[in-house]
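Write out structure tokens for Universal stress protein.
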Amino acid sequence: MIAIDAMMVCLDLSDIDEKLVAFTRSICERLQVGKVYFVHNVKVAELSDDFRELFGNMDLATEVEGNINDIVTEHFGNATAYEVLVGEEPNTEVMLAELVKRYHIKLALLGKKMSDKSTGALGTKLLQVLPCSVLVFPETASASIHKALLPLDFSATSVHALRLSQNLATQLGLQLEILHVYRLPTQYFPLISEEKAVKKAEEIVKERFATLQRKHQETAGVPYTLVRAANKSVAERIRLHLGKGKYDLLVLGLKGSNPLPSLRFGSVPKEIYNMDLPIPLWLVYSEEVIR
């Protein structure tokens, strides 16, 4: 069973905040969530001179907290225990990372605007520094989730994401499917037949799936699809597959063995995050990785 002791919702005082709060409510109604922290950081140092001249020494943090409380009251209600936290720190990423550690946050919810409205730079930084799993909710996404896709590469990271996805599917009654994108060693063509190479690659992958299902019997009934990357990146193949299956959620495992955040994040999750996907993206760290 998935139990989220503490969850952090990152708000930016834009139109997407109401959607994030409403989506948080739907999560709390369907999963066991202990407490939710609605968080915003006011960068006082970046306020313009015009703002200071117009409003003087106004307690901006208190005003922001009141605004967030109004949104939470309207769109979250009493779904579970919650607290509104407003900071005035120069570095938002550092502040949020510290809150994750202080309150033992298991899941952070981030909103994501389309690329024509935002560069997504802050979100990319947060994904690299937050020591917890992250659920990204695009502004065009729906809170209704019925079908989930898990790309699997057989790493320990993706197997952990598979277990979480299976538990999620069981608890919420979701339809779960697995996708594996494979590549062929094209440097050996035409020394070997491409047809034979494809056949051999798929045989190997199917055997790996069989081994995985024997080891994790709860996954035995989950359907999977094999897709060749060919002239596309793995992330692009995943995006194309999403367009065919009418999925409502994408789950990806995150690696954590590299001490450099830019490498730890991984190229596939980063590329997918930067795409304008219309569905939520759950980026999963295992407890071992976080420790």
